[in-house]
Input
Amino acid sequence: MERLQKVIARAGIASRRKAEELIKEGHVKVNGKVVTELGTKVTASDKVEVDEIPIEKENPVYFLMYKPRGVISSVKDDKGRKVVTDFFPLLKERIYPVGRLDYDTSGLLLLTNDGEFANLLMHPRNQIDKVYVVKTEGIPAKEDLRKLEKGIKLEDGKTAPAKVNLLSADKRKQTAIIEITIHEGRNRQVRRMFEAIGFPVLKLKRERYSFLTLAGLRTGEIRELTHHEVKQLRAAANESLHKNS
Ligand code: URA
Output
């Protein structure tokens, strides 16, 4: 569901502010009825008309990106830093990231212009697995990792149980490589979890999102999702939502 003024603005007919005026002044119809309420929400299947002319909807597009470190998961940045949409210079659709990876985190990021799809994947009750590979300062013991597996108290509440695997340890450098699977998506969650057990994160990469991996992509590269992958992701998200509601 999206706000009507946003849908009109996205179709390129008017700015958000101008779209609000058009609605208030009775120029806009949803499914044949004039709507003057600004809070009205519509879905992709609603027919929106401005002055009797149906708005053109953008084609839904879905991308998987290998986000490099040092890039913001956003469509613009006030400080002029590189943002993920800079990697799509020729795309006319207005895509945005599904969730976010920190500036210093690399790895798998999905981008789309399909608001319903993005909301479905980001729904808080959704338990889609995300697999991260972490390089830590110091080598956590089994008991330390066990704390992450059980769930650990952070300032915004206890984390859900995680799967954790020590992949390798460098005794000389005192660093470790650990794989962690979580399904929540709180702000800087993996970094805060490792911080909480006393092993700060030196490097963080998201390797998997549900069944999707970075296979075949190098850092900074993108590919379109196939129809089948989009369908599978929707199915996985819907199944998880039903299980948890
Ligand atoms: N957890 C983090 O701490 N950072 C990310 O970018 C993703 C998950």
